[in-house]
Amino acid sequence: MAYPGFGSSWPGTTAGGAANSASNNYTQLFKTAYADMIRLKAQTLHSALSDTCMPEVLRGDPLMLDSYKSVTLTTRDRGQQYGANGSDKPYKETDNERRELRPEFHEFAELFDPRDERALMRAIQPDGAYVANVAAAFNRKKDEVILNAFRGGVTINGTALADTATVQLHGFRKDCDAAYGSTIAIADALAEGSSTDLLGGAGTGTANDASSASGDNIGGTIGAAIVAELGGIGFGTSPADTAVDPTFSLTQEFGCQQIVEGDVQTIGSTGVASSAGTVGTDAAQGLHIKKLLTGLNVLQTNGAWQGQRIYVVLHPDQVNDLMHEAQYTSSDYNALQPLMYGQPVPFLGCEFRVCNQIPKETVLSGCGTLTIAEEAASANDDAYATGALTTAANGRYVWMYTEDANIFGMGDEMTVRFDEIPDRGYSLQCYHDFSLGAVRMDPKKMIAIPCHKGTTAA
Questions:
Q1: Which of 216, 270, 264, 292 minimizes the C-alpha distance to 366?
Q2: CA nearest neighbour of 10 among 19, 182, 245, 450
Q3: Which residues of 432-441 are buried (b: 16+ CB within 10 A; e: fewer)?
Q4: What's the rounded Cα separation, in Å, for the pair 283 and 274?
Q5: What's the CA gap between 41 and 165, in Å, rounded?
Q6: In what order do the strands lie in the sheet with 63-68?
Q7: Which residues of the chain carry a pLDDT beneath 70?
Q8: What CA–CA distance (Å, rounded) separates 296 from 398?
Q9: Which of 453, 455, 437 lies closest to 63, judged by CA?
């Protein structure tokens, strides 16, 4: 499609961008079709992420997705029965978790000159540049929705674990906290404070809003750094250790067990990364093999089986980091020789997907100093921890996940309709729409890898 001339303002608007006026009417919205003369400007044409998630079909209404939780087996002696008596073995109950996949609806519509119908029919052929241009916008929307689902809030069993933009990976950390054994209500109480607020302050007086159950404390994760920071305090042993009642218990936020430290050192390095991004430390702050190995360690500890497909979604900036990794580029370690192809190739059992829509932002980096207190000195409440997670500006997250960690749902593929608008002089309307949605199904199958360059551009 092409506009009929080089106007100083968008057709259908005044010079200042205002709405149509009497002297600038709807006919200026018309496009003239020249199918054999149109080319596409540089843009992302295809979705990089839609096939990395489990597919579902949307019908317009929110979709409820169930998943079974793990069960334990029973050892029964000879002659022992199942039942309700004291010596009987109790029956097991399989718990399930229900998550909501809520569809989004996106559209695109244009008007065309009815006198140009023949050329328009040529231009809208399935392999035409006009259709490809609109389809590219819808494909980019797919990746945007999936990226938002990686980190956003979820609704579990009717309770929304909402995401707050001012807190780093707030929805993701809440979800992880619940997955590690915390109740949904307590996980939802993760403080909605500033970006440096870790666990929040005193809660309702009935539960520890810091929450959660045990984690694996795998080295190289922010969760392990939090545990190490709290481990220096002998909480619960004597009042002198924490200044709280020793009968109180303190639990940690294991929502960070799925987040790799931003400054974890490269393989064989003994130095300490600098937040200033000086020479010799940039490699530790960017994407490197040690961060990938840490992510794999967490996924496999959580049950990812050998041979399961694992995806790594990264920005071109992090591709550049990998191309400087000797273990990744050398034919001694990687027979596929990525430098020959100039793009990421499978490595460590992972398939890499490059997505240029991953935003630049302030990312989590590690754990700062924590302070221990109690919710109420006169009440039988848990202690809680407040403190700061360290952050780094000008960074991006790399996402590592198994093939069944997320669900991506769509209605029909992009629908295209052509209609005549009688009250617009029988002008032709070209209308496109589709519905889609994505949801994180199991946060223990996902890893967030923060990468940055200190105070320099990522």
A1: 264
A2: 19
A3: bbbbbbbbbb
A4: 11
A5: 33
A6: 63-68, 96-101, 154-156, 159-161
A7: 1-42, 84, 119, 122-124, 126-127, 165-167, 186, 189-216, 230-254, 268-283, 370-388, 454-458
A8: 13
A9: 437
Structure tokens at 3: 């506009």
* CA 423/CA 37 separation, integer angstroms: 31
User: How many other C-beta atoms can be found within 10 angstroms of the C-beta atom of residue 175?
Assistant: 29
Tokens of 116: 């140009």
Look up the pTM and report it.
Answer: 0.80
Number of neighbours of residue 27 by Cβ within 10 angstroms:
14
Question: Which residues are 399's β-sheet partners?
Answer: 313, 448
CB-based contacts of 227, cutoff 8 Å, min separation 6: 215, 217, 252
Q: Which of 357, 438, 435, 364 is nearest to 395 (CA)?
A: 364
The dihedral of CA 110, 111, 113, 118: what is its sign? positive
> For 154-185, how does the pLDDT look when each residue is reduced to its tens digit (9 = 90+)?
999 888 888 876 667 888 988 888 888 777 77
**79-86 long-range contacts, CB within 8 A, separation 24+:** none
The per-residue pLDDT for range 238-291, each reduced to its tens digit, is 444 444 444 444 455 567 889 998 888 877 654 444 333 333 355 678 899 999
Torsions phi, psi of 98, nearest 5?
-115, 125
Residue 312 · residue 351 · CB < 8 Å: yes
Q: Are 42 and 393 in contact (CB under 8 A)?
A: no
First to last CA, the chain: 38
